[in-house]
Amino acid sequence: MSLPLKVRRLGRQPYAATWEAMSDFTNNRGPDTPDELWLLEHDPVFTQGQAGKAEHVLAPGDIPVVQVDRGGQVTYHGPGQIVGYPLIDLRRAGVSVRELVNKLEQSIIDTLAHWNIGAERLEGAPGVYVAGAKVAALGLRVRRGCSFHGLAFNVSMDLEPYHRINPCGYKGLAVTQVLDLGGPSRLADVEDALVEEFCRQFGFDAEQAAPILPELPARAAV
């Protein structure tokens, strides 16, 4: 039987408020809280993961750099990029952290296949690549068996800010996007395919939820 998944298409959102909302959601969810997938764009921001090293931020200029509690190094978020936050109870879904990463990557690979774009993984470098250029990055956190943070999938954006960092800690890593690979420029088109493939990978049954950041009542301290 498929598990329900609430899909929230949130439009453009500031980073800090969204980070706080998904952290609160994870802290306050209970065993019966439905899993969610948030899809959105962020205002321009560099985020530096827990393993991030300052030397990988080369020249941020007017774009803020935010230290965050996900895994991984530095990456860029901006308009024209799909950011996906899978808020999943991994135990209920029967998924390990390794499988979570694998299934997220496969969801993106299968999404790109809708437009005959051949994509792949690279050993030891999480994310999705086309001809050696990175089209999607992953950065995750698991708390009390539940995932938050997630994926960044370049669709139709200004790629210049990637030259201001070593993307994901790799000097000179080439970065690409769906539009330049012959796919669509509309985020909604790519989101539709991504939701379909995400649900196929995880065995979810998607339902559209209100396009607002949800609030759960705070859990009592145990």
Write up this protein.
The protein has helices at residues 15-28, 90-93, 97-113, 187-202, and strands at 3-13, 35-42, 45-48, 65-67, 74-77, 81-87, 120-122, 125-130, 133-143, 146-154, 204-208. It is an alpha/beta fold and 222 residues long. The strands form two sheets. An eight-stranded mixed sheet has the order 7-8-9-10-6-2-1-11, sandwiched between helices. A three-stranded mixed sheet has the order 4-3-5, with no helix packed on it. Helix content is 23%, strand content 32%. The chain is globular, with a radius of gyration of 16 Å. It starts with a strand and ends in a 14-residue tail after the last strand. The chain has four helices and eleven strands; from the N terminus they run E-H-E-E-E-E-E-H-H-E-E-E-E-H-E. The model has no long low-confidence stretch (mean pLDDT 93). It is an enzyme of class 2 (transferase). Substrate binds at residues 70-77, 137-139, 150-152. Residues 31-206 form the BPL/LPL catalytic domain.
